[in-house]
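Recall the central idea of this unit: under ordinary conditions, the amino acid sequence of a chain determines the structure it adopts. In this exercise we apply that idea directly, starting from the sequence alone.
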Amino acid sequence: MIEVDNKYIDSAIDELVHLLGVKEFVDGDCLLGMLEEGRTKDCVEAIAYYLGLPISVVLSYVPSVYHGTATPGQGFTSHELVKTDRTGKGVESITAQVSTPDSLPLFGSSSLRNYFVTVKVSENIGNYPTTFTALMAHELSHVLLRSLRHSKWDNEVYTDISSMLLGFNDVVKMGRKVVKQDFRGTDTITYTTTYGYLSDSGFSYAYQRISEMLERNRKLKKLIIQKIEHIRTLMARLNKSISRFKHYIEIIDMSPRKRISGHDAQQIVSLHQPHYVKKFEDFVSASEARLQKYRYYEVIKHYKENWYTGVEEELDQFTHEAIGFAELSKKDLRVLAKNMNLWLRIRFMFRIALNR
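Accordingly, the structure predicted from this sequence is:
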């Protein structure tokens, strides 16, 4: 177990968040389901994909007592993960070993897509599926950091934290300890094996900080979604106002009020100009395209650094513009309604009520 203080963990998290961001939790049940169905290769590739590695996996099974060796620079071996046992008793190991050459393609390059990575797993993984997924997330995080050419790709603490940031926070929490019990007569002896490089206190600190970061991003996402929904509501109302505006114009043209003030008459003339209603229609049409841009923020699961920068300001400006058009539309409708034939106005309002 590597002993590092919270300051070291903070530094690692800050550095890695800048590089990797923070991600929503992976669907651990889905991964476990793959293992239960014997689809270990699919499970490993799904873990890699969630980490951002579009690789192909060559899978081989080894005995649970396997002790792999790796040529320097060519492997990462989980069997070296520290296993603690408060009684000192050895327990069955769980192996997950990933081998990659020094020529691993750069992250984001086309050469990394479907790049073959060899993965050795112990035959007993079915006994410890959650621990296996946590180990594989750790091992593949080594590959990720190396493909990013990160200077600390072989630093175990940085690797642990990388997998936690990229969606495996809960998986690691559930899988880092294996508890076994021996029953001897009336006595029950419990053995706990810990996998991972962070101490319990260090892991708890990192887990809590990453959870808080994720929660902050979720709140920002929720706020942005609320702003988007508010704009959609304003656009729907404006669309109805445009439709009502056109009907009001038709009614006034058929049967205007007998007495119309000079000010209202001048305004009604200006409302008849073909370009007048078009500016409302153009705004609604352009708004549909603008809203498409923000669909990403409604489904985002990977929060890169400063992912929200400028979005709130844009949406606030968008909302301000929409409210401006809505207020102007209300004012125009009031003028038109006031100067419509009363009977036709009542009939029109009754028809609208029936169609709701």
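Residues 215-355 form one domain.
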